[in-house]
Amino acid sequence: MTNLCDIELFLLDMDGTIYLDDILFDGSLEFIQKIINKNKKYVFLTNNSSKNQNDYVKKVNKLNIPCSNENVFTSGMAMGLYLSQNYPNKKIYLLGTKALETELKSYGVLLVDDNPDIVVVGFDRELNYQKLEKACEFLCNGAIFLATNPDLVCPIKDKRYIPDCGSICHMLTVATNKQPIYIGKPNPDMIYLLSKKFNIPCDKIAVIGDRVYTDIASGFNAKATTICVLSGESTMKTIEESEIKPDYIFNSIKDLINLI
C-alpha cells in the first residue's frame, strides 16, 4: 500500500467528497491548501456532467478553493475527447443539460435533433419525456449508445439523492434492450489522460471519492491508490459488500490533512 506522503497527484471527486450542493465539507479547504503547500497537484475529477468545466471552476472558486481550468476534469470533457477522437463528424443526439451541450460543442461535436449516429446521455437535470422518447426511437433504429457516467444517484443536501445518469440510462435500457458504453468513472481512461498530462505515474496518484463503484473502481482499474470517504453515498456496509475494496477508508476529507 502506497504511503500517502508519496502521492504526487490527488484526483478528487466533488459531490459527496468535497461538498454537497453549495455546502463545503469541514476540512476541504484545509486539505487543498495542504496539497498546495506540499507542492503537489490536484484535479477535481467528477462524473457529474450536468455542469461544464467553466461552471465548476466558478463554483469551486465561490467556495474559496483555489481552482483553474487545469484543476477540473469532468466526464463531459472526457466524452468530448472520446467523440472527437473516435467519432469525428458523426451526428450526436444528446440527453444532457445546456452546459454539457456547450462542453461537447467546444470539442467540435456535431449535435442534431434527428437521424443521429450516436445517442449520448449525461446527467440531465433538464430531462423531459420528449427527449426520452426520441432517444428510444434512435436507439431502436441502430444508433450507438454512449453515456458519461453510470452513477445511479447524485447526493444533495439533507442526506437526499436524485436520479443521476445511470438511472436515466436504465430507463432507456429497459425500453430498448440496449446497453450504453460509459466513458467516465469507473473507466480508468480519465486517470490515464491526467497521468500522461502531468507526467505522473499511476502509482503516484490517489483517487479520493465517496462511491466504490465509480470513484474507487476507476482508481483500482488504473492501479492508483484509492481512498473512500464516508461523507457521501458509500457506507461501511456497501464497502463490505463490494468486490472492490479501497486502500484507505476515512470518515471525511478532513481526516487526510495530517497524512499527506
Secondary-structure topology with pairs:
Layout: E1 9-12, E2 19-20, E3 23-24, H1 28-37, E4 41-46, H2 53-62, E5 72-74, H3 75-86, E6 91-95, H4 98-105, E7 110-111, E8 118-121, H5 129-140, E9 144-147, E10 153-156, E11 160-163, H6 165-176, E12 181-182, H7 189-198, E13 205-209, H8 212-222, E14 225-229, H9 236-241, E15 248-250
Parallel strand pairs: 1-4, 1-13, 4-5, 6-7, 6-8, 8-9, 9-12, 13-14, 14-15
Antiparallel strand pairs: 2-3, 10-11
Architecture overview:
- With 260 residues, the protein is α/β, with parallel strands linked by helices.
- The protein is built from nine helices and 15 strands.
- Helices cover 35% and strands 21% of the residues.
- It is globular.
- The model has no long low-confidence stretch (mean pLDDT 95).
Radius of gyration: 18 Å
Q: What's the average pLDDT?
A: 95
- Low-pLDDT parts are none
Q: Strand arrangement, largest sheet?
A: 5-4-1-13-14-15
- SS strand fraction: 15-25%
In short:
The chain has helices at 28-37, 53-62, 75-86, 98-105, 129-140, 165-176, 189-198, 212-222, 236-241; strands spanning 9-12, 19-20, 23-24, 41-46, 72-74, 91-95, 110-111, 118-121, 144-147, 153-156, 160-163, 181-182, 205-209, 225-229, 248-250. It has 260 residues and is an alpha/beta fold. Helix 2 links the parallel strand 4 (41-46) and strand 5 (72-74).
Task: For the structure shown, list the relevant keywords.
Rossmann fold, 260 residues, 2 domains, single chain, 21% strand, 5-stranded parallel β-sheet
